[in-house]
Amino acid sequence: MALEDEIYRDPPSTFEQNYRCYPVSFIEKSHLEKGDKIIMPPSALDRLAYLQIDYPMLFELKNPSASKVSHCGVLEFIADEGLIYVPYWMMENMLLQEGDIVNVKNASLSKGTYVKLQPHTTDFLDISNPKAILETSLRSYSCLTTGDTIMVAYNNKKFYIDIVETKPSPAISIIETDCEVDFAPPLDYKEPERPLKSKVPPEVEEEPPTKVPKFNPFSGSARRLDGKPAETVAAPLVQPQKTEATTSGTNGSMPSSSGSRKRSGKLVFGSTADQNSNGTPKATMKEAKQDSSKKEEAKKEEPKFQAFTGKKYSLKN
């Protein structure tokens, strides 16, 4: 009965095996660096078929010495027995060296609905359409694990991207699923520095109000009505000084105030009678005399009109 029970008992549904890992470049399959597919030995395929593992086959890779865990898919079963070939970027994530022991276990992952990515450099964001490039590159991946760093190759460059967050679980399957993709700022991104406001005292900041020139009447130069050049410049206008009225004689007449008016700076047209007595300069008196003498000479030189001084003509022949 014990043998019959073992024959009809359901086979275990868990595949778990230890292998030595090497990079995929060892078997001239460096193109597998653009995804997360591994190469396993033929014996693994027989074991998986016996366990009736459903497709797509997903596996959990674990480094026992460093307690690092990741997930991957399988492409072929052509590796030598006891060996598996893994993309080098996955070996770096798990801190594996060539020939280290890695534990391989089948896994069932839920389909992803959300993933948040963080590029290492801002060069990835300089691509014209990074989401389209990422969508094309992720077709070579079977699953994503939070904390991993994947590699995306584009235009002969390698861009490394961190898996910051995945939903609905820390490890998700991205095969035939619609997954929302979000980006975090790149690791080398620096916010532009804001210019510091220079502290200037308020006296310098506030400009003094511009002074509007006031209108000053009678501030131009003097010109004579007869066109001759002005000989003297009129003094600025000054308000007349108040003089006290005094009586002289017995009739009580007021003294003449013509001298005070002239001293006050007012213009007096056609009167030069009292200039010498009121303190005008001698030079101006001489000039006035010279002008008058010149006018008299000019009048003498002009010929006077004399009536009936022409020739006499007779109306008779």
TrEMBL record:
Skewed-composition ranges (Basic and acidic residues): 188-202, 284-304
Region (Disordered) residue spans: 185-317
Keywords: Ubl conjugation pathway
Annotated Polar residues bias: 272-281
Alphabetized GO MF terms: polyubiquitin modification-dependent protein binding
InterPro entries referenced in this protein's UniProt entry, alphabetically: Ufd1-like, Ufd1-like_Nn, UFD1_N1, UFD1_N2
Residue ranges with Low complexity bias: 246-259
Record-annotated Ubiquitin fusion degradation protein UFD1 N-terminal subdomain domain positions: 15-109, 111-186
GO biological process: ERAD pathway; ubiquitin-dependent protein catabolic process
Family, similarity comment: Belongs to the UFD1 family.
Protein name in the entry: Putative ubiquitin fusion degradation UFD1 family protein
